[in-house]
Predict the 3D structure of the following.
Amino acid sequence: MPDNATPSLAKRLVCALKIEGTLKEKRPVHAFGWGAKGEFLPSAVAKNYCRAFHFNLARRDDGSLVTYPVTLRFSNGSGEAKQRDSWSDVRGMAARFHDPQDDTRATDLIAMTLPEFFNATPEGFAAFAQAAKSAPCRAQTPWEKLRDMLHLIQPMPDPYPGQTRRPDEGAIRYADKDARAQLAVLQAATIGVPQSYLQASYHAVHTFRVTGFGGTNNVRFEWRPVDGVRPHDPDLTPEPGSPPVDPDDFLVPDLKNRLKNSAAGPHVRSRPMRFSLMMTIGETGDDFNDPSRPWPPRRKRVFMGMLTVNEACDTEKVSFNPGLLTDGVAASDDAILWTRIEAYRYSSEQRGGTPCPFAEGQ
Ligand code: HEM
Protein backbone atom coordinates (compact mmCIF):
# COMPACT_ATOMS: atom_id res chain seq x y z
CA MET A 1 0.00 0.00 0.00
CA PRO A 2 1.42 3.47 -0.86
CA ASP A 3 2.46 5.46 2.26
CA ASN A 4 -0.03 8.25 1.65
CA ALA A 5 -3.08 5.91 1.54
CA THR A 6 -3.77 5.88 5.27
CA PRO A 7 -6.96 4.50 6.88
CA SER A 8 -7.45 7.72 8.87
CA LEU A 9 -7.45 9.83 5.71
CA ALA A 10 -9.92 7.41 4.11
CA LYS A 11 -12.30 7.84 7.05
CA ARG A 12 -11.90 11.62 6.98
CA LEU A 13 -12.77 11.57 3.29
CA VAL A 14 -15.95 9.61 3.89
CA CYS A 15 -17.04 12.13 6.54
CA ALA A 16 -16.14 15.05 4.25
CA LEU A 17 -18.16 13.57 1.37
CA LYS A 18 -21.31 13.05 3.44
CA ILE A 19 -23.76 15.93 2.98
CA GLU A 20 -25.36 17.23 6.15
CA GLY A 21 -29.01 16.33 6.55
CA THR A 22 -28.93 13.24 4.28
CA LEU A 23 -30.03 9.83 5.50
CA LYS A 24 -27.44 7.82 7.44
CA GLU A 25 -28.33 4.62 5.58
CA LYS A 26 -27.62 6.18 2.17
CA ARG A 27 -24.18 6.13 0.56
CA PRO A 28 -22.42 9.53 0.99
CA VAL A 29 -21.97 9.72 -2.79
CA HIS A 30 -23.83 7.71 -5.45
CA ALA A 31 -26.74 7.81 -3.02
CA PHE A 32 -29.47 6.90 -5.51
CA GLY A 33 -28.97 3.68 -7.35
CA TRP A 34 -30.64 0.63 -8.77
CA GLY A 35 -29.58 -2.99 -8.67
CA ALA A 36 -29.60 -5.62 -11.38
CA LYS A 37 -28.35 -9.08 -12.13
CA GLY A 38 -26.54 -9.98 -15.28
CA GLU A 39 -24.24 -12.56 -16.81
CA PHE A 40 -20.79 -12.16 -18.27
CA LEU A 41 -19.41 -14.13 -21.19
CA PRO A 42 -15.63 -13.74 -21.56
CA SER A 43 -14.17 -13.36 -25.03
CA ALA A 44 -12.02 -16.06 -26.61
CA VAL A 45 -8.83 -14.02 -26.08
CA ALA A 46 -9.53 -12.79 -22.54
CA LYS A 47 -7.79 -15.67 -20.77
CA ASN A 48 -4.58 -15.08 -22.72
CA TYR A 49 -4.32 -11.73 -20.97
CA CYS A 50 -5.76 -12.58 -17.58
CA ARG A 51 -6.07 -15.82 -15.64
CA ALA A 52 -8.87 -14.49 -13.36
CA PHE A 53 -11.82 -16.91 -13.17
CA HIS A 54 -14.28 -14.63 -14.98
CA PHE A 55 -12.04 -14.34 -18.04
CA ASN A 56 -11.88 -18.09 -18.53
CA LEU A 57 -13.96 -19.03 -21.58
CA ALA A 58 -15.01 -22.60 -20.78
CA ARG A 59 -17.63 -25.11 -21.86
CA ARG A 60 -19.89 -27.21 -19.69
CA ASP A 61 -20.19 -30.97 -20.24
CA ASP A 62 -23.20 -30.36 -22.51
CA GLY A 63 -21.08 -28.08 -24.72
CA SER A 64 -22.72 -24.81 -23.66
CA LEU A 65 -20.51 -21.85 -22.75
CA VAL A 66 -20.05 -20.98 -19.06
CA THR A 67 -21.29 -17.49 -18.15
CA TYR A 68 -20.44 -15.72 -14.89
CA PRO A 69 -23.25 -14.21 -12.76
CA VAL A 70 -22.81 -10.50 -12.10
CA THR A 71 -24.42 -8.29 -9.44
CA LEU A 72 -24.74 -4.69 -10.57
CA ARG A 73 -25.64 -1.30 -9.18
CA PHE A 74 -26.19 1.72 -11.44
CA SER A 75 -26.18 5.08 -9.67
CA ASN A 76 -26.19 8.86 -9.88
CA GLY A 77 -22.96 10.32 -8.48
CA SER A 78 -24.53 12.88 -6.20
CA GLY A 79 -24.95 12.34 -2.47
CA GLU A 80 -27.79 14.90 -2.25
CA ALA A 81 -30.98 13.91 -0.47
CA LYS A 82 -33.17 14.41 -3.54
CA GLN A 83 -32.88 12.34 -6.67
CA ARG A 84 -32.53 14.46 -9.84
CA ASP A 85 -32.07 12.25 -12.87
CA SER A 86 -32.25 15.08 -15.39
CA TRP A 87 -29.48 17.12 -13.75
CA SER A 88 -25.97 16.83 -15.11
CA ASP A 89 -24.04 14.35 -12.96
CA VAL A 90 -21.49 11.56 -13.09
CA ARG A 91 -23.17 8.10 -13.18
CA GLY A 92 -21.78 4.93 -11.67
CA MET A 93 -21.79 1.25 -12.51
CA ALA A 94 -20.57 -1.16 -9.84
CA ALA A 95 -20.19 -4.79 -10.91
CA ARG A 96 -19.43 -7.92 -8.90
CA PHE A 97 -18.51 -11.05 -10.88
CA HIS A 98 -19.28 -14.35 -9.13
CA ASP A 99 -17.61 -17.69 -9.72
CA PRO A 100 -20.35 -20.28 -10.40
CA GLN A 101 -17.89 -23.07 -9.42
CA ASP A 102 -16.93 -21.52 -6.09
CA ASP A 103 -19.44 -19.37 -4.23
CA THR A 104 -16.73 -17.96 -1.93
CA ARG A 105 -15.05 -16.26 -4.87
CA ALA A 106 -16.00 -12.90 -6.40
CA THR A 107 -14.32 -9.80 -7.81
CA ASP A 108 -15.52 -6.20 -8.16
CA LEU A 109 -15.10 -3.62 -10.91
CA ILE A 110 -16.40 -0.16 -10.01
CA ALA A 111 -16.66 2.37 -12.79
CA MET A 112 -18.11 5.78 -13.57
CA THR A 113 -18.92 7.91 -16.59
CA LEU A 114 -16.04 10.29 -15.88
CA PRO A 115 -12.97 9.02 -17.77
CA GLU A 116 -10.47 10.59 -15.35
CA PHE A 117 -10.49 11.27 -11.61
CA PHE A 118 -10.17 14.65 -9.85
CA ASN A 119 -6.76 14.07 -8.31
CA ALA A 120 -3.78 11.77 -8.14
CA THR A 121 -3.31 11.78 -4.39
CA PRO A 122 -5.70 11.22 -1.47
CA GLU A 123 -4.55 14.52 0.13
CA GLY A 124 -5.24 16.33 -3.14
CA PHE A 125 -8.66 14.73 -3.37
CA ALA A 126 -9.40 15.71 0.26
CA ALA A 127 -8.61 19.35 -0.60
CA PHE A 128 -10.73 19.09 -3.72
CA ALA A 129 -13.68 17.52 -1.85
CA GLN A 130 -13.52 20.33 0.71
CA ALA A 131 -13.44 23.05 -1.98
CA ALA A 132 -16.18 21.41 -4.07
CA LYS A 133 -18.74 21.12 -1.29
CA SER A 134 -22.21 22.00 -2.48
CA ALA A 135 -22.73 25.77 -2.03
CA PRO A 136 -25.39 28.34 -2.94
CA CYS A 137 -25.51 29.15 -6.65
CA ARG A 138 -27.31 31.65 -8.87
CA ALA A 139 -27.67 32.41 -12.58
CA GLN A 140 -25.08 34.84 -13.91
CA THR A 141 -26.42 38.06 -15.40
CA PRO A 142 -25.95 38.49 -19.18
CA TRP A 143 -23.24 41.07 -18.41
CA GLU A 144 -21.33 38.64 -16.21
CA LYS A 145 -21.52 36.01 -18.95
CA LEU A 146 -20.25 38.51 -21.52
CA ARG A 147 -17.40 39.54 -19.22
CA ASP A 148 -16.41 35.88 -18.78
CA MET A 149 -16.49 35.29 -22.53
CA LEU A 150 -14.31 38.34 -23.16
CA HIS A 151 -11.81 36.87 -20.68
CA LEU A 152 -12.04 33.53 -22.55
CA ILE A 153 -13.71 31.95 -19.49
CA GLN A 154 -16.60 29.58 -20.03
CA PRO A 155 -19.62 31.18 -18.24
CA MET A 156 -21.28 29.03 -15.57
CA PRO A 157 -24.38 27.17 -16.74
CA ASP A 158 -27.68 28.50 -15.39
CA PRO A 159 -28.91 26.49 -12.40
CA TYR A 160 -31.74 24.05 -13.12
CA PRO A 161 -35.22 25.21 -12.02
CA GLY A 162 -35.29 24.68 -8.26
CA GLN A 163 -31.51 24.29 -7.97
CA THR A 164 -30.13 26.53 -5.23
CA ARG A 165 -26.84 24.75 -4.41
CA ARG A 166 -24.22 22.90 -6.43
CA PRO A 167 -20.54 21.90 -6.21
CA ASP A 168 -19.55 23.40 -9.58
CA GLU A 169 -18.37 26.87 -8.50
CA GLY A 170 -16.10 25.48 -5.76
CA ALA A 171 -14.76 22.74 -8.07
CA ILE A 172 -13.89 25.28 -10.76
CA ARG A 173 -12.23 27.63 -8.28
CA TYR A 174 -10.16 24.67 -7.05
CA ALA A 175 -9.20 23.66 -10.60
CA ASP A 176 -8.05 27.23 -11.32
CA LYS A 177 -5.29 26.60 -8.77
CA ASP A 178 -4.55 22.89 -9.22
CA ALA A 179 -3.85 21.89 -12.81
CA ARG A 180 -4.20 18.18 -11.97
CA ALA A 181 -7.90 18.65 -11.31
CA GLN A 182 -8.63 20.59 -14.48
CA LEU A 183 -9.32 17.74 -16.87
CA ALA A 184 -11.82 15.92 -14.64
CA VAL A 185 -13.48 19.14 -13.44
CA LEU A 186 -14.02 20.25 -17.04
CA GLN A 187 -15.34 16.83 -17.99
CA ALA A 188 -17.65 16.72 -14.95
CA ALA A 189 -18.96 20.23 -15.68
CA THR A 190 -20.11 19.17 -19.14
CA ILE A 191 -20.97 15.51 -18.55
CA GLY A 192 -24.74 15.93 -18.91
CA VAL A 193 -27.32 13.17 -18.56
CA PRO A 194 -27.53 9.81 -20.33
CA GLN A 195 -30.74 8.70 -22.03
CA SER A 196 -30.44 5.45 -20.09
CA TYR A 197 -28.01 3.86 -17.63
CA LEU A 198 -27.51 1.37 -20.48
CA GLN A 199 -26.43 4.08 -22.91
CA ALA A 200 -23.34 5.43 -21.18
CA SER A 201 -19.69 4.33 -21.07
CA TYR A 202 -18.25 3.64 -17.64
CA HIS A 203 -14.54 3.86 -16.80
CA ALA A 204 -12.80 2.06 -13.93
CA VAL A 205 -10.19 4.87 -14.07
CA HIS A 206 -7.37 3.12 -12.13
CA THR A 207 -4.64 0.92 -13.50
CA PHE A 208 -4.76 -2.78 -12.58
CA ARG A 209 -2.04 -5.37 -13.12
CA VAL A 210 -3.43 -8.37 -14.94
CA THR A 211 -1.55 -11.61 -15.41
CA GLY A 212 -2.21 -14.26 -18.05
CA PHE A 213 -0.26 -16.70 -20.25
CA GLY A 214 1.51 -13.80 -21.93
CA GLY A 215 2.81 -12.24 -18.68
CA THR A 216 1.68 -9.20 -16.69
CA ASN A 217 0.23 -6.01 -18.17
CA ASN A 218 -0.81 -2.66 -16.69
CA VAL A 219 -4.35 -2.09 -17.88
CA ARG A 220 -7.44 0.07 -17.54
CA PHE A 221 -11.00 -1.25 -17.94
CA GLU A 222 -14.03 0.39 -19.51
CA TRP A 223 -17.63 -0.72 -20.19
CA ARG A 224 -18.98 0.28 -23.63
CA PRO A 225 -22.77 0.05 -24.16
CA VAL A 226 -23.85 -2.07 -27.16
CA ASP A 227 -26.86 0.23 -27.55
CA GLY A 228 -24.52 3.19 -28.06
CA VAL A 229 -23.78 6.25 -25.95
CA ARG A 230 -26.73 8.62 -26.05
CA PRO A 231 -27.31 11.86 -24.15
CA HIS A 232 -30.75 12.44 -22.69
CA ASP A 233 -33.17 14.28 -24.96
CA PRO A 234 -36.07 15.65 -22.88
CA ASP A 235 -38.13 16.20 -26.06
CA LEU A 236 -37.81 12.61 -27.27
CA THR A 237 -41.15 10.84 -27.74
CA PRO A 238 -41.22 7.95 -25.24
CA GLU A 239 -41.19 4.44 -26.67
CA PRO A 240 -44.50 2.57 -26.69
CA GLY A 241 -45.11 0.91 -23.32
CA SER A 242 -42.69 3.15 -21.45
CA PRO A 243 -44.01 4.95 -18.37
CA PRO A 244 -44.60 8.73 -18.43
CA VAL A 245 -41.28 10.52 -17.98
CA ASP A 246 -40.68 12.05 -14.54
CA PRO A 247 -37.65 14.36 -14.95
CA ASP A 248 -36.45 13.52 -11.42
CA ASP A 249 -36.79 9.79 -11.83
CA PHE A 250 -36.67 8.30 -15.31
CA LEU A 251 -33.45 6.27 -15.43
CA VAL A 252 -34.69 3.42 -13.22
CA PRO A 253 -38.14 3.28 -14.90
CA ASP A 254 -36.30 3.14 -18.26
CA LEU A 255 -34.28 0.16 -17.08
CA LYS A 256 -37.31 -1.61 -15.68
CA ASN A 257 -39.18 -1.04 -18.92
CA ARG A 258 -36.30 -2.40 -20.98
CA LEU A 259 -36.06 -5.46 -18.73
CA LYS A 260 -39.80 -6.03 -19.02
CA ASN A 261 -39.64 -5.79 -22.83
CA SER A 262 -36.66 -8.09 -23.10
CA ALA A 263 -38.29 -10.66 -20.76
CA ALA A 264 -41.54 -10.55 -22.79
CA GLY A 265 -39.86 -12.47 -25.61
CA PRO A 266 -38.67 -11.87 -29.15
CA HIS A 267 -42.07 -10.57 -30.37
CA VAL A 268 -41.53 -7.36 -28.33
CA ARG A 269 -38.94 -5.02 -29.79
CA SER A 270 -36.35 -4.52 -27.09
CA ARG A 271 -33.14 -2.54 -27.04
CA PRO A 272 -29.82 -4.31 -26.36
CA MET A 273 -29.07 -4.51 -22.63
CA ARG A 274 -25.42 -5.35 -23.04
CA PHE A 275 -22.00 -3.86 -22.37
CA SER A 276 -18.63 -4.80 -23.90
CA LEU A 277 -15.80 -4.90 -21.40
CA MET A 278 -12.77 -3.28 -23.04
CA MET A 279 -9.27 -3.43 -21.60
CA THR A 280 -6.61 -0.88 -22.64
CA ILE A 281 -3.00 -1.97 -22.26
CA GLY A 282 -0.61 0.65 -20.94
CA GLU A 283 2.88 1.09 -22.31
CA THR A 284 6.21 2.21 -20.89
CA GLY A 285 5.97 5.90 -20.06
CA ASP A 286 2.24 5.84 -19.26
CA ASP A 287 1.36 6.84 -15.73
CA PHE A 288 0.10 3.72 -13.95
CA ASN A 289 -0.50 5.34 -10.56
CA ASP A 290 -2.31 8.52 -11.51
CA PRO A 291 -6.04 8.16 -12.28
CA SER A 292 -6.30 11.87 -13.16
CA ARG A 293 -4.18 11.46 -16.30
CA PRO A 294 -5.37 9.86 -19.57
CA TRP A 295 -3.13 7.57 -21.56
CA PRO A 296 -2.33 8.38 -25.18
CA PRO A 297 -5.23 7.32 -27.43
CA ARG A 298 -3.34 4.82 -29.57
CA ARG A 299 -3.03 2.07 -27.02
CA LYS A 300 -3.92 -1.57 -27.71
CA ARG A 301 -7.49 -2.31 -26.65
CA VAL A 302 -8.74 -5.83 -26.08
CA PHE A 303 -12.35 -7.01 -26.01
CA MET A 304 -12.56 -9.00 -22.75
CA GLY A 305 -16.19 -10.08 -22.82
CA MET A 306 -19.86 -9.20 -22.94
CA LEU A 307 -22.18 -8.41 -20.04
CA THR A 308 -25.94 -8.92 -20.46
CA VAL A 309 -28.23 -7.25 -17.91
CA ASN A 310 -31.09 -9.62 -17.08
CA GLU A 311 -33.24 -8.74 -14.10
CA ALA A 312 -33.78 -6.25 -11.29
CA CYS A 313 -32.50 -6.96 -7.79
CA ASP A 314 -31.99 -4.99 -4.59
CA THR A 315 -28.34 -3.99 -4.06
CA GLU A 316 -28.79 -1.06 -1.69
CA LYS A 317 -27.16 -2.97 1.20
CA VAL A 318 -24.44 -4.56 -0.94
CA SER A 319 -20.92 -3.30 -0.18
CA PHE A 320 -18.89 -3.07 -3.36
CA ASN A 321 -15.19 -2.45 -2.92
CA PRO A 322 -12.55 -1.65 -5.57
CA GLY A 323 -10.08 -3.78 -3.59
CA LEU A 324 -12.14 -6.95 -3.95
CA LEU A 325 -9.91 -8.54 -6.59
CA THR A 326 -9.20 -12.12 -7.53
CA ASP A 327 -6.13 -14.07 -8.56
CA GLY A 328 -4.97 -12.65 -11.91
CA VAL A 329 -5.99 -9.03 -11.19
CA ALA A 330 -3.95 -6.91 -8.76
CA ALA A 331 -4.11 -3.28 -7.68
CA SER A 332 -1.45 -0.88 -9.00
CA ASP A 333 0.32 1.46 -6.58
CA ASP A 334 -2.31 4.15 -7.18
CA ALA A 335 -2.82 5.77 -3.75
CA ILE A 336 -6.40 6.80 -4.64
CA LEU A 337 -7.30 3.17 -5.31
CA TRP A 338 -5.80 2.04 -1.99
CA THR A 339 -7.57 4.86 -0.13
CA ARG A 340 -10.89 3.81 -1.64
CA ILE A 341 -10.49 0.28 -0.26
CA GLU A 342 -10.64 1.54 3.33
CA ALA A 343 -13.10 4.35 2.54
CA TYR A 344 -15.72 1.99 1.07
CA ARG A 345 -15.36 -0.44 3.97
CA TYR A 346 -15.83 2.36 6.50
CA SER A 347 -18.71 3.92 4.55
CA SER A 348 -20.49 0.58 4.39
CA GLU A 349 -20.15 0.21 8.18
CA GLN A 350 -21.50 3.73 8.71
CA ARG A 351 -24.58 3.19 6.58
CA GLY A 352 -25.27 -0.32 7.89
CA GLY A 353 -24.35 -2.06 4.62
CA THR A 354 -23.95 -5.82 4.54
CA PRO A 355 -20.25 -6.51 5.11
CA CYS A 356 -18.73 -7.90 1.95
CA PRO A 357 -18.82 -11.71 2.44
CA PHE A 358 -15.93 -12.15 0.01
CA ALA A 359 -13.52 -9.68 1.63
CA GLU A 360 -12.40 -11.99 4.49
CA GLY A 361 -8.70 -11.71 5.09
CA GLN A 362 -8.18 -8.84 2.63
C1 HEM B 1 -10.33 8.75 -2.92
C2 HEM B 1 -11.29 8.73 -3.85
C3 HEM B 1 -12.67 8.23 -3.60
C4 HEM B 1 -13.37 8.19 -2.43
C5 HEM B 1 -12.92 8.62 -1.04
C6 HEM B 1 -14.66 7.61 -2.74
C7 HEM B 1 -15.65 7.38 -1.82
C8 HEM B 1 -16.80 6.67 -2.03
C9 HEM B 1 -17.69 6.21 -1.02
C10 HEM B 1 -17.50 6.44 0.48
C11 HEM B 1 -18.69 5.51 -1.61
C12 HEM B 1 -19.85 4.80 -0.94
C13 HEM B 1 -19.41 3.36 -0.64
C14 HEM B 1 -20.45 2.56 0.13
O1 HEM B 1 -21.01 3.09 1.08
O2 HEM B 1 -20.64 1.38 -0.22
C15 HEM B 1 -18.44 5.55 -3.03
C16 HEM B 1 -19.24 4.98 -3.98
C17 HEM B 1 -18.93 4.93 -5.32
N1 HEM B 1 -17.81 5.43 -5.93
FE1 HEM B 1 -16.29 6.37 -5.02
N2 HEM B 1 -14.73 7.32 -4.07
C18 HEM B 1 -13.53 7.68 -4.64
C19 HEM B 1 -13.17 7.52 -5.96
C20 HEM B 1 -13.95 6.94 -6.91
C21 HEM B 1 -13.51 6.66 -8.26
C22 HEM B 1 -12.12 6.90 -8.81
C23 HEM B 1 -14.58 6.06 -8.89
C24 HEM B 1 -14.64 5.56 -10.30
C25 HEM B 1 -14.00 4.51 -10.72
C26 HEM B 1 -15.67 5.98 -7.96
C27 HEM B 1 -16.92 5.45 -8.22
C28 HEM B 1 -17.86 5.15 -7.27
C29 HEM B 1 -19.10 4.44 -7.55
C30 HEM B 1 -19.60 3.96 -8.89
C31 HEM B 1 -19.76 4.31 -6.33
C32 HEM B 1 -21.09 3.62 -6.06
C33 HEM B 1 -20.82 2.16 -5.68
C34 HEM B 1 -22.08 1.41 -5.36
O3 HEM B 1 -23.00 1.45 -6.21
O4 HEM B 1 -22.14 0.77 -4.30
N3 HEM B 1 -15.25 6.51 -6.76
N4 HEM B 1 -17.29 6.26 -3.27
The mean pLDDT is 93. The helical segments are 7-17, 46-49, 122-131, 142-150, 168-177, 182-189, 251-264, 335-351. The radius of gyration is 21 Å. The chain has two domains: 7-114+194-351, 130-190.
